[in-house]
Amino acid sequence: MLTATMNLSRFALGLGGSLALGWLALNAADPAPPVVTPGQNGSPPSDAIVLFDGKDLSAWKSSEGGAATWKVQDGYAEVAKGGILTKEEFGPVQLHVEWAAPAEVKGEGQGRGNSGIYLQGRYEIQVLDSYQNPTYSNGQAGSFYGHSAPLVNASRKPGEWQTYDIVFHPPQSSADGKVTPGSFTVFHNGVLVQDHVPVPGDATTAAQFKGVTAKGPIFLQDHGNPVRYRNIWVRKLK
Length: 238
Ligand code: MG
Description:
The protein is built from 1 helix and 15 strands. The model is unreliable at 1-20 (pLDDT under 50). Helices cover 12% and strands 31% of the residues. It folds into 2 domains: 1-35, no CATH class; 48-236, Jelly Rolls (Sandwich), CATH 2.60.120.560. The protein is mostly beta strands. Strands 1, 3, 4, 6, 9, 12, 13 and 15 form an 8-stranded antiparallel β-sheet that branches. Strands 2-5-14-7-8 form a 5-stranded antiparallel β-sheet, with no helix packed on it.
């Protein structure tokens, strides 16, 4: 009994010693990560670029040309004639968006609360009122439209605010012309719906994906339904 206790003590001491050495070595070699002050309840962290804070759409322009003319009131912007796109263009990003489908339910399937968030103006994470509203799976809320259905349907009821947290890496082309797919990871209302799914480059047949670009705008779609947006911010990734 006594022997067993002594052996255990020696083992614990040895393990503790090696762990402590490893910890010291790692800290000595690696630079400290930058400090970011996190937001609260979805508000932007300190290193985010705020794209819409509920007051104005000065970071955006209309896809029809000129300034973004969506109605802004009570801290949200509502889809109106034409889509809007950011003036700034982005490569890999973390993107936070809050949206609400119309409280008054009109239409069905793709005709109900349809909008969309396009990364680089081309890769759409679908916005749709998918609360008890069946449609094709790779076109419902949280889908990478036309490519990847969400893992689950995490939709809230029409009129309720919903969140998307999107991590996007664009496809890249190398010097020899080969295209490496990018990726989407998406949380819908905090629930994982896209788990590092590939974003194709120009290997796809979809014409709008032809070519690969390092940067592009974030685009919010007008699909004819008065979807609302608020609290949009983005962090550039390396
Ligand atoms: Mg759409």
